[in-house]
Specification:
Strand content: 25-35%
Number of helices: 13
Number of domains: 3
Distance between the termini: 69 Å
CATH superfamily of the largest domain: FAD/NAD(P)-binding domain
CATH topology of the largest domain: FAD/NAD(P)-binding domain
Structural class: alpha/beta
């Protein structure tokens, strides 16, 4: 029976990062992963393959629709979907192999198989290669991530009614793709297949898309996606689906009237839930929340059972890979006696449509509901020299600052490379900075980052180029 200081169950962003940091701090570590490859949902069937397809499909769209504006005359591009998917798989393989190398480099034992808590300080692993390995340890970290929510009235069948996993591997472009849910996963994957030739219809129960986003910015993205050809059926309730020979008919209700939508594929993306099945939590008295499936933890990420910890999607907070990574580092460092802290209020979120939408901090609706007085500064990309040179003028930066102290409370960016631009805002907010601080930082010209600076100036009604 092998013995370790720490056994991590789950080799995704939270788990493998925690394992590496713990090993760096001198602990003996084992990492148990159910998949044949490390990296979790993010690297295998989430963040990375979806971004590979988003970039490939964006290039396909740019060549077909924008190249001529730049004086580049080329024939209409021809799609080789198999090669595009092959490139995506190559990217995934390289990155998952890289994670395996890092764990080996840090002398972490990796066991591929289903791990579960078999008692205090004990983990049993049903090995993928056969047999069982029993481990003892001082500490157990649960980092098993999450899985797509499967609606009882619209269950996944892996063929016509699919999750995001299957939507990354369609062997042909659907003629008509129906998205159930107007969240970030659906809008991103819908963008991929729309660019490649699908008709895309988004069905959403709520009266708006992206309920978690700033309403103004969500509206801008909505209009942009409509301009790109997506069709939205908002305020529409899905009641079920009828599989047919060449697709599926989605049954819905809108304004109390039945609505049927026929398509080739239905992608259900209404959220994710913590993955805790088969972890043996009952053996130590751990009971996940009945609604979210998540576990409660203290400041050290310890559950109600001493010696058992959890990070990432298993605990409260946004289900994001970078949040899990930061918690993995913080967990390991706190286990070593350090006082690392992760501020959930400054974790950025990104929606990788094009243009992109990124945010950090609070949005206007939250500030109004909390009765917090604030000032707003906005600046459009169309007035930015670099955006004009790129032919990417669609978008806006909005900064929300405390009315009395000028401390930045939230930053929302809809525009080109918003995923990269948000890092400056995160830094400012981590250091409790003000919009004046952004103004006083010299921003290179011509760059997209100047839009953020002008928005900060607009907070004080002194934007130079507006």
């Amino acid at each position: 029976m092998a013995s370790y200081d720490l056994v991590v169950i789950g080799g995704g962003p939270g788990g493998y990062v925690a394992a590496i940091r713990a090993a760096q701090l001198g602990m003996s570590v084992a990492c148990v992963e159910k998949r044949a490859t490390l990296g979790g949902t993010c690297l295998n069937v989430g963040c990375i393959p979806s971004k590979a397809l988003l970039d490939s499909s964006e290039l396909f769209s740019v060549i077909g629709h924008q190249a001529a504006k730049h004086g580049i005359k080329v024939p209409a591009p021809q799609l080789d979907l198999a090669s595009m998917l092959g490139r995506k798989d190559k990217v995934v393989k390289e990155l998952t192999s890289g994670v395996a190398f890092l764990l080996k480099k840090n002398k972490i034992d990796v066991l591929h198989g289903a791990g579960k808590v078999s008692g205090p300080g004990q983990v049993a692993v049903d090995l993928a290669s056969g047999g069982r390995s029993n481990l003892t340890c001082k500490h157990i970290l649960l980092a098993t991530g999450s899985e797509p929510i499967n609606l009882p009235f619209l269950p996944f069948d892996g063929k016509n009614i699919v999750s995001s996993t299957e939507a990354l591997t369609f062997d042909k472009v659907p003629d008509h793709l129906i998205l159930v849910g107007a969240g970030y996963i659906g809008l991103e994957l819908g963008s991929v297949w729309k660019r490649l030739g699908s008709r895309v219809t988004v069905v959403e129960y709520l009266p708006r898309i992206l309920a978690i986003a700033d309403a103004e910015m969500a509206t801008l993205l909505h209009k942009s996606l409509e301009k790109q050809g997506m069709v939205f059926q908002l305020g529409t309730k899905v009641t079920g689906a009828t599989p047919e020979k060449n697709g599926v008919t989605l049954r819905c209700e809108a304004d109390g009237k039945p609505v049927n939508i026929k398509g080739d594929k239905v992608l259900v993306c209404v959220g994710r839930k913590a993955y805790t099945q088969g972890l043996g939590l009952e053996s130590v008295g751990l009971v996940p929340d009945s609604r979210t499936g998540q576990l409660a933890v203290d400041a050290n990420y310890q559950t109600q059972v001493a010696g058992i910890y959890a990070v990432g999607d298993l605990i409260a907070g946004p289900m994001l890979a970078h949040k899990a990574e930061d918690e993995g580092v913080a967990f390991a460092e706190r286990l070593a006696g350090q006082k690392t802290h992760v501020d959930h209020a400054t974790i950025p979120s990104v929606i990788y449509t094009w243009p992109e939408l990124s945010s950090v901090g609070r949005h206007e609706e939250e500030l109004k509901a909390a009765g917090i007085a604030y000032k707003t500064g906005k600046y459009a990309f169309k007035a930015n020299a670099r955006a004009k040179c790129m032919d990417e003028e669609d978008g806006l930066v909005k900064i929300l600052a405390d009315a009395s102290t000028d401390r930045v409370l939230g930053v929302h960016i809809f525009g080109p490379r918003a995923s990269d631009l948000i890092a400056e805002a995160v830094t400012i907010m981590e250091f409790r900075g003000s919009s004046e601080d952004i103004i006083r930082i010299c921003h290179a010209h011509p760059t997209l980052s100047e839009v953020t600076r002008e928005a900060a100036m607009a907070v004080h009604k002194r934007a130079i180029h507006a």
